TrEMBL record, chain A:
NCBIfam families: gatC (TIGR00135). InterPro entries: Asp/Glu-ADT_sf_sub_c, GatC. This is Unannotated protein. PANTHER family: GLUTAMYL-TRNA(GLN) AMIDOTRANSFERASE SUBUNIT C, MITOCHONDRIAL (PTHR15004:SF0). GO terms for biological process: glutaminyl-tRNAGln biosynthesis via transamidation; regulation of translational fidelity.
From TrEMBL, chain B:
This is Unannotated protein. The keyword Nucleotide-binding applies. Belongs to the GatB/GatE family. GatB subfamily. GO terms for biological process: glutaminyl-tRNAGln biosynthesis via transamidation; translation. It comes from freshwater metagenome.
UniProtKB/TrEMBL annotation, chain C:
The lineage of its organism: unclassified sequences, metagenomes, ecological metagenomes. It catalyses: L-glutamyl-tRNA(Gln) + L-glutamine + ATP + H2O = L-glutaminyl-tRNA(Gln) + L-glutamate + ADP + phosphate + H(+). InterPro entries: Amidase, Amidase_CS, Amidase_dom, AS_sf, GatA. This is glutaminyl-tRNA synthase (glutamine-hydrolyzing). It comes from freshwater metagenome. Belongs to the amidase family. GatA subfamily.
Length: 98, 508, 497
């Protein structure tokens, strides 16, 4: 297990969309390192032949019928939006790609 | 060599193919035609008012949870079976994590390393100067996921995302069941790569249509393609590939492959390096522009979706679905070739023109197979090509053809008038009957009117009557022609001829 | 019948059904109690007196009309603020959801309404249920009614404190790693984390979807069982909901019998690291169970020592994904939308401003654990450990009917004591976490006060998946024996506020 650097924290902040402050970068790199070291013990477990468990109760094939149910009203759908226009959610401009 | 405004340089296709081999791969997204969305009961109707087909689930509201649409799973299995895939005995959904405002949860529920269907193939036929050639396109996987909302970019000069001041989101499309069909790399197509790509997408579309799982309308976005392509010199290892997105018509699939071959060949010719990147295809120019570089790509942090339980289709269910599969387009083509007694070339041109199903449907209405083919691959195909649209997009139906044909048989229309009827149908002038009425297209069958026209024609050419009466019956053609002209083609020429000879007391 | 707010739920329901008191009187008594003491306790984030009284009035109308009512009809309840309730503020203790009013009811709320349980309001919690002290609420900490300088546990400290302060006889919690049981333990109340899938998660703002489970909280085992029965059962809106009959928890709570029951003491959960008074009361409780006819044996679950590590990888991983949607686009807070900033920038500024430090810490931890190159070592390995822990439980349940341990290693600690020491805070959950990893059910009930600090100690009972009735069978018996011994419920020893 590797230790976590300030640059790692900055990268994680970008991936997780958190505009971290300088002091947070310091603080979190320290804390995440401590936490990761404390959880690192799980790597001691020899688990090569152990199947990973993603769901606690084994169940399969839970489906619903393909039936249309009432939607929200548009008013309900848009009620909590920070900004709307023309019955749509208004969002800031998208800069990263054409 | 040509240069575009984006700075991309292209060399002619044939030149590119003289030095490089292309390797292609195609990812196709198909929106399933279910009644309700993938995880909730909202309607999937296209074209409804913005944000009227949304609920806590497809809006990703805090606390909401997805439940899988059974028909979507069933459709995916049927697609997998039609593409000769294995169907997973057990597979999970996975979350693909990335932030984007058209995605309400900021993750997409998809499938990652456990697709529902895998390892299949689809054979496609391409016309070559040496006759039809079959290519086997291997299918890597078919998996289930969900569509995103629709963004509209506002402000700025172009209306495009670039330069926009802000964007508006309609989440009606968010959560519509989407399946992704990914091919393995297709090698050995050589200069036929653009045609193979197009033939594959077309065949895939026909399969979807035969299965009835989607309306596969590329123009409405219910089927969308991304084309991966790399070039290498013969004998060298594979080159770096680009991914061209936004390829949204059959014609564009072919053009996108061709364009990318021309571009990459130019880069390589100049000693450059092809960048692993996403490119965006533009229908208007037929060229693509560089998008996001894959080297800066997001880390999607896939993990099994904990809110959904695994899908484990029983073998009984899979076999039941297999038994219910309709006739596949390739099988159907072989059958029709036999039934209609046509050769490979005719079959290929029927299939490639998109006329096959239309002809079959027309025959089902009782029209003779020769006549059905004649109309669809003649007059109507010409118009479709002229307009640059698919045959089936024309406003003429198999039923229209049946009506016209039965009027021809009864003598009420002739070929020339029939063409005018189709002209009217294509112009949206109404039904066959309405067009005949408004355009006055009935064959003149009133003997009196025809005899009057004959008399007029004979009076204008007195010598002709003598010739005919003296035995030169072939001279009748001139009079018949004059009568046809006088009746603006609305007469039955054979009938005119018969009346003329009777008038002159001549028998054949 | 004395102060209405001091009565237990089953007593109140009976009094309402027999018209001894009206539901409106009962609700008003609790609203008054909240007005009187919640300034000190801060158990509630939001109280809707009008809606509660209207609901109570409707119950009285049904009583008057002779309608057959459920066993908790007219009884007031505090709802953890992580559950969506239509038209009512639902914040999950976070600034990022300040002012959000859901357009829909969670399944738990629908079932509470169907049972005619009166919802007083929303209770305080650690932000997005991340914490063991309720100090991570963006709206201020909740105080433990036993000692206002101490934490009420977390994340569901508001629900537990509301019970202990007699502000409500019933409450709903959610338990991802102990958020129902640990607050119950440190407040002298009862809380049950049902089998995963036993109670619908639909409408519960997700923390870690494969661990989360809503459950009942009350002051007695029977009240807890009645509430459990009201909210449990299959829900087609939750794909992970168990489609099978709910075990008869109410009958089990009434039977309250451990004769012939085999009770396994988990060797790894106890001893070193556990406060002396906790261990002492725990030992006494085991003796009582034995005296009641249970067979108490020691069992070993060797993989449990890795549970905390696995949990603190799985939880942040799932949480980092579940909390992605709080991006300021569709609801909640939006920061930095000045017409110039791009969407990525606005999302980042919103999340930076809207989330508290513990939430950010866990989001980053989870983002890290899932990122390419680390997945196998962290998330993948944690899921394998999860399998081993489940196997330990399965092996143990082949020998015994239920397993037991102290619920928490200590009694309530002081506010602020562990606030910026995440590891110390996480260690609080060491005994409760294995249950969530395996998806089984567990209960915490009070077994006395620790001699050294006079604060409540909790006893944890764990049962195999879908055998939640065993929790009530054993818990009911232990509660009855202790109540006999004390002459009253432990909660009645709580100080006046």
């Amino acid at each position: 297990m590797t230790s976590i650097s300030r640059a790692d924290v900055a990268h994680l902040g970008r991936l997780a969309r958190l505009e971290l402050t300088e002091s947070e970068l310091d603080h979190y790199s320290e804390q995440l390192d401590v936490i990761l070291q404390s959880v690192a013990r799980i790597s001691e477990v020899a688990a090569d032949d152990i199947p990973p468990m993603s769901h606690p109760i084994p169940m399969v094939n839970v489906f619903r019928d393909d039936v249309v149910k009432p939607s929200l009203t548009r008013q309900e759908a848009l009620a909590a939006a920070p900004a709307t226009e023309d019955d749509r959610f208004r969002v800031p401009r998208i800069l990263d790609e054409e | 060599m040509t240069t575009t405004s984006h700075g991309d340089v292209y060399i002619p296709f044939d030149e590119a193919m003289s030095r490089y081999e292309p390797i292609i791969g195609i990812e196709t997204h198909v929106e399933l035609g279910t009644n309700s969305k993938m995880w909730c009961g909202c309607s999937t109707d296209f074209g409804s008012d913005a944000n009227t087909q949304v609920c806590p689930v497809c809006l990703g509201l805090p606390g909401s949870m997805p439940v899988v649409n059974r028909v979507a799973v069933e459709s995916t299995i049927r697609i997998g079976l039609a593409l000769n895939c294995n169907i997973a005995e057990w597979c999970r959904f996975a979350r693909k994590n990335y932030f984007y405002p058209d995605m309400p949860k900021d993750y997409q529920i998809s499938q990652y390393d456990e697709p529902l269907c895998y390892d299949g193939y689809l054979d496609v036929t391409v016309d070559t100067p040496d006759g039809p050639q079959v290519f086997r396109v291997e299918i890597e996987r078919v998996h289930m996921e969900e569509d995103t909302g629709k963004l509209t970019h506002t402000g700025g000069a172009t209306g495009r995302i670039h330069g926009a001041e802000y964007s508006l989101v309609d989440y009606n499309r968010a959560g519509i069941p989407l399946i992704e069909i990914v091919t393995k790399t297709v090698i050995g197509t050589g200069s036929l790569a653009p045609e193979v790509a197009k033939a594959y997408v077309k065949e895939l579309r026909d399969v979807m249509r035969a299965l009835g799982v989607s309306d596969v309308r590329m123009e409405e976005g219910s089927m969308r393609c991304d084309v991966n392509l790399s070039l290498n010199k013969p004998g060298d290892g594979w080159g770096t590939r680009s991914e061209t997105k936004n390829v949204n018509s059959l014609r564009s699939v072919e053009r996108a492959v061709r364009s990318e071959i021309e571009r990459q060949a130019s880069v390589l010719d100049n000693g450059g390096r092809v960048i692993q990147e996403t490119r965006h295809f533009h229908e208007d120019t037929g060229r693509s522009t560089s998008g996001r570089s894959k080297e800066k790509a997001e880390d999607y942090r896939y993990f099994p979706e904990p809110d959904l339980v695994p899908v484990a289709p029983s073998r009984d269910w899979v076999e039941e679905l297999r038994a219910g599969l309709p006739e596949m387009p390739s099988v159907k083509r072989a059958r029709l070739k036999e039934e209609w007694n046509i050769n490979d070339f005719e079959l290929a041109s029927l299939a490639n023109s998109g006329a096959l199903d239309l002809v079959e449907a027309t025959i089902a209405f009782g029209v003779d197979s020769v006549a059905a083919r004649k109309w669809w691959t003649g007059e109507l195909l010409r118009v479709a090509n002229e307009q640059g649209v698919e045959l089936e997009a024309l406003s003429v139906t198999p039923h229209d053809i049946q009506q016209v044909e039965s009027l021809i048989t009864s003598g009420a229309l002739n070929d020339k008038l029939a063409r005018q009827v189709f002209e009217g149908l294509l112009a949206g002038e109404g039904t066959v009957e309405e067009i005949i009425a408004t355009r006055g297209l009935a064959v003149v069958s009133d003997d009196g009117a025809l005899l009057a026209a004959i008399d007029e024609a004979l009076a204008a050419a007195p010598d002709v009557a003598e010739k005919i009466q003296s035995g030169k019956i072939q001279a009748a053609g001139a009079v018949v022609g004059a009568v046809m002209k006088a009746t603006k083609g609305q007469a039955d020429a054979a009938k005119v001829r018969a009346l003329l000879l009777e008038r002159l007391g001549v028998s054949e | 019948m004395g102060d209405l707010f001091r009565q237990n739920a089953s007593v109140l329901a009976n009094a309402i059904a027999t018209k001894e008191v009206s539901a409106v009187e009962v609700t008003q008594a609790h609203l008054d109690r909240i007005s009187a003491v919640d300034g000190k306790v801060h158990a509630f984030l939001h109280v809707n007196a009008q809606a509660a009284l209207e609901q109570a009035k409707a119950v009285d109308a049904k009583v008057a009309a002779g309608t057959t009512l459920g066993p908790l009809a007219g009884v007031p309840l505090g709802l953890k603020d992580v559950l969506a309730m239509k038209g009512e503020p639902t914040t999950a203790g976070s600034k990022i959801l300040e002012g959000w009013r859901p357009p829909y009811d969670s399944t738990v709320v629908q079932r509470l309404r169907a049972a005619d349980i009166v919802i007083l309001g929303k209770t305080n919690m650690d932000e997005f249920a991340m914490g063991s002290s309720t100090e991570h609420s963006a709206y201020g900490a909740t105080h433990n009614p036993w000692d206002l300088d101490r934490i009420p546990g977390g994340s569901g400290g508001g629900s537990a404190a509301a019970l202990a302060a007699f502000e409500a006889p019933l409450a709903i919690g959610t338990d991802t790693g102990g958020s129902i049981r640990q607050p119950a333990s440190v407040t002298g109340t009862v809380g049950v984390k049902p089998t995963y899938g036993g109670v619908s998660r639909y409408g519960q703002i997700a923390l870690a979807s494969s661990l989360d489970q809503p459950g009942p909280c009350a002051r007695t085992v029977l009240d807890t069982a009645l509430l459990h029965a009201a909210i449990a059962g299959h829900d087609p809106m939750d794909s992970t909901s168990i489609n099978a009959p709910v075990p008869d928890v109410v009958a089990a709570a009434k039977r309250a019998d451990v004769r012939g029951m085999k009770i396994g003491v988990v060797k790894e959960l106890g001893g070193e690291g556990y406060q002396a008074g906790v261990s002492q009361r725990y030992a006494e409780a085991l003796e009582i169970l034995q005296s009641l006819g249970a067979e108490v044996i020691e069992v070993s679950c060797p993989s449990f020592e890795y549970a905390l590590g696995a949990y603190y990888l799985i939880l942040p991983s799932e949480a980092s994904s579940n909390l992605a949607r709080f991006d300021g686009m569709r609801y909640g807070l939006r920061v930095g939308d000045d017409g110039n900033n791009g969407v990525e920038q606005v999302m980042s500024m919103t999340r930076e401003a809207g989330f508290g430090p513990e939430v950010k810490r866990r989001i980053m931890l989870g983002t890290y654990a899932l990122s390419s190159g680390y997945y196998d070592a962290y998330y993948g390995q944690a899921q394998k450990v999860r399998t081993l822990i489940t196997r330990d439980f399965n092996a143990a349940f082949e020998q015994v009917d239920v397993l037991v341990s102290p619920t928490a290693p200590t009694t309530a600690f002081k506010l602020g004591e562990k606030l910026d020491d995440p590891i110390a805070m996480y260690l609080n959950d060491v005994a409760t976490i294995p249950v969530n990893l395996a998806g089984i059910g567990a209960m915490s009930l009070p077994i006395g006060l620790a001699p050294e600090d006079g604060l409540p100690v909790g006893f944890q009972i764990m049962a195999p998946a879908m055998a939640d009735d065993r929790l009530y069978l054993a818990g009911g018996a232990l509660e009855a024996a202790l109540t006999d011994r004390w002459g009253h419920l432990l909660i009645e020893e709580a100080p006046e506020l």
